[in-house]
Design goal:
Shape: elongated
Number of strands: 7
CATH topology of the domain at 38-110: SH3 type barrels
Strand content: 25-35%
CATH architecture of the domain at 38-110: Roll
Strand order of the largest sheet: 6-5-4-1-7
Number of helices: 1
Helix content: 10-25%
CATH superfamily of the domain at 38-110: SH3 Domains
Order of helices and strands: HEEEEEEE
Structural class: mainly beta
Distance between the termini: 75 Å
Radius of gyration: 26 Å
Length: 111
């Protein structure tokens, strides 16, 4: 037990140390990073009328089809492209009508 003069007395005016604003900003930025991924707008090219551009689950022609984009579609949200795929062909991650998946880069251009 400590002598009375050394005992810690609660301070009614003592407030918790303020959290630094830069720390809060950094944490919010990290939490929002996926939403801040660069988005680009695309349009479909090279698809015949009456046909469709398939949206695939993974960047691979053998992957499941999870959606489709009509040949005249514009303002398709894009999230980047890669050729680091099994086929070494370039694929782009897109969102169209709420479906997020992969399309061949050959069939889209900047809108």
């Amino acid at each position: 037990m400590l002598p009375p003069q050394m005992e810690r007395q609660p301070s009614p005016t003592r407030k918790p140390a303020p959290v630094k604003r830069p720390l809060i900003f950094a944490l919010l930025l990290l939490a929002a990073a996926p939403a801040l991924a660069r988005q680009e707008l695309y349009r479909v090219v090279g698809i015949a009328p009456g046909d469709q551009l398939n949206i695939r689950e993974r960047p691979d022609a053998d992957s499941d089809i999870i959606g489709a984009i009509p040949p005249n579609a514009r303002r398709i949200q894009g999230f980047g492209c890669t050729d680091d795929t099994p086929s070494r062909q370039a694929w782009c991650r897109v969102r169209y009508n709420g479906v997020v998946g992969w399309v061949r880069e050959t069939f889209i251009r900047y809108d």
